[in-house]
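Standup notes
- DV: blocked on the single-chain target, sequence here:
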Amino acid sequence: MNAIVQTTETVARVPRPAQRPIGQIASSAAVLHRSLVAALDPAGASAETLRELRSQLILRWFGDQRALAVLGARAEDDADSVAANLAITMAQLGEPTLIIDANLRAPRQHELFGLKSVFGLSDLLRNRDVHDQAILPVQAVDNLHVLCAGAVPANPQELVSRTPFQYLMKTLPERFRAIIVATPPALSCADAQIIAARTQGCILITRRHQTRVAEVEEIKGRLASGRATLVGGVIRE
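- DV (later): unblocked, structure below
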């Protein structure tokens, strides 16, 4: 969608991943969702596009910063899988990487990575000291850890607005070189704006021929009011 380029600089166009027979997936990665092409099909075109995205973000953001939020305009933009794939590509550089599922409304990272977590972000935001149990390694991807969402709370916006989330975003960079934060959809949930403000920067995921210019402008305005830097945009096919 050329109009998107006019409103926010496009970092990458991510093609739809090709379907791959489950029998071709190595046993060590069998728990991973088939959309995680950066791990399951690293030689494919989609994985190469994700590495290009990683390179652009290293040049534009990760040189000085460590945390980045990944926002979708709408739920159907599937920003969750882009965030997960981006985290995988960062970990593949040999850097300690963490992906945080801050989509406390409809979390998906536990599903994408095949994890069964008892504790998660919602527990940490309630000041429960369960860091070691909540931050889980991904056995199929070296250097990658996941902080799942935990139990879905009744008040997600209030939770991410509290001091504990700010504290996490200040202290976790001591352990991880790159932190990717998955958020709920930007147009329907104010949580995304708050999370982007805490990470200080974000990328916006949109859909070709579906996301409208007016919607992108609206999201940009919300992010600007929270003083979050919109690093760039990703157009999904």
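- Follow-up: The beta strands are 10-14, 67-72, 97-101, 135-137, 144-147, 178-182, 201-207, 229-236.
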